[in-house]
Design goal:
By secondary structure, the protein is mainly α. The protein has helices at residues 16-34, 41-48, 52-59, 62-88, 94-111, 113-119, 130-150, 159-182, 188-207. The chain is elongated, with a radius of gyration of 21 Å. GO terms for molecular function: DNA-binding transcription factor activity; transcription cis-regulatory region binding. Keywords: DNA-binding, Transcription, Transcription regulation. Residues 40-59 bind DNA.
Length: 210
């Protein structure tokens, strides 16, 4: 006696914006688990509980879906870091501002671990997605530069010099985040302390030049 395959659960109707968000969230998980090349649109459709043509209708292609996932992560990271800086206020000491931004980055990584894994797959993702991944770094650099430029302690520091320090900060945060993948016991607070204690001496010396 043979048994038939279990029928797919009926698709629940929901507004397009909610469905797109659901697809992006699940696609992010599947891409992170399997890698871009090994993931198929059928994999994602089955996990979401929709038809494959629906995902093509919304995103056009697997590359388009990946690009949308990365764009979503970029927006979420910007909101998180801007909220952290807003919370400490414009008149906070530079060290407090610096620590708040670094802490927000690692908190975001912990809350969106699959998104971070996705951004580390540059060698495997489609060509059109690579510039989007780099745009996340550029976004963080620009936001950090804008915040540092407003700090009274850094008034008068040449833009080129400050930009160089910002790139060091962004690079350090990303490398420590990658290291934490192999060291999951390292908390976000501990990672923040590593970056801040390593870089604050140089940033503090820079502030004295302003």
């Amino acid at each position: 006696m043979t048994t038939s395959a279990a029928p797919r659960a009926p698709r629940v109707r929901m507004p397009r914006a909610e469905r797109e968000e659901q697809i992006l969230r699940i696609a992010e998980e599947v891409f992170a688990e399997r890698g871009f090349q090994a993931t198929t649109m059928e994999d994602i459709a089955e996990r979401v509980g929709v038809t494959k043509p629906l995902i093509y209708e919304y995103f056009g292609s697997k590359e388009g879906l990946l690009s949308a996932c990365i764009t979503r992560a970029r927006s979420q990271l910007r909101v998180a870091t801007e909220a952290a800086w807003l919370a400490v206020g414009p008149d906070a000491p530079l060290e407090v501002v610096f620590r708040a931004g670094v802490a927000a980055f690692f908190a975001f990584i912990d809350e969106h671990a699959t998104a971070f894994v996705l951004t580390q797959q540059e060698g495997a993702v489609a060509t059109q997605a690579s510039p989007l991944i780099e745009s996340i770094r550029e976004q963080q650099s620009a936001a950090t530069m804008g915040t540092f430029r407003k700090a009274p302690a850094l008034t008068g520091v040449p833009d080129q010099l400050l930009e160089g320090y910002v790139e060091v900060v962004i690079g350090a945060c990303e490398r420590v985040a990658v290291w934490r993948i192999r060291r999951p016991e390292v908390s976000a607070d501990e990672a923040t302390e590593i970056v801040v204690s390593s870089l604050w001496g140089g940033l503090s010396a820079l502030s004295s030049r302003g």
